[in-house]
Amino acid sequence: MNGPVKVFDFGPKQTRTIGIVTGGAGSEIYRVAQDSIDTFITGEAPHWAAVAAEELGMNLLLGGHYATEVFGVKALAAHLSKRFKIPCEFIDCPTGL
After folding, report:
1. Which of 18, 24, 43, 45 could form a disulfide with 68 if both were Cys (CB 3.0 to 4.6 A apart)?
2. Are the CB atoms for 16 and 38 separated by under 8 Å?
3. Model pTM?
4. What is the mean pLDDT of residues 11-39?
5. 9 has which bridge partners?
C-alpha cells in the first residue's frame, strides 16, 4: 500500500483547510470546494477533477482507492474485536486499481 500519491498542487502553498474522503470521491470536488477546502485528499478521481482543481485553485491529492480505505476498515475491525471479544484478521488484497 505504499503506492505513489498523485499531487495536483493548484492551491495555496500553505494549507488552511483539508478535506478527506476515502475511496473514489474525486467527483465530489465541487461539493468540497463549497466548504472552502483548499486541499482535498481522496483515493481516486476522474480526469476532469484535476482540471476542476486547477480552476478552483485547490490542491488535490489522490492516494489510491484501496489505500485510502484500508485504515478505516482495520480500525473498525480492531474496535469490534475489542468490544465483542472476538478475533479478527485483516486479509490484505490490493489489486493496484
Report:
1. 43
2. yes
3. 0.84
4. 97
5. 59
Long-range pairs for 47-54: beta carbons < 8 A, 24 or more residues apart: 50/8, 53/8, 53/10, 53/11, 53/29, 54/8, 54/10
Rounded to the nearest angstrom, the gap between the alpha carbon of residue 60 and the centroid of all alpha carbons in its chain is 10
In this prediction, residue 10 has a pLDDT band, given cuts at 50, 70 and 90, of: very high
pLDDT tens by residue, 49-96 = 999 999 999 999 999 999 999 989 999 999 999 999 999 999 999 887
> 43 is written with which cell numbers?
483515493
SS3 state of residue 77: helix
Is 60 a member of any domain? yes
- Provide the residue range defining the domain that includes 61: 6-65
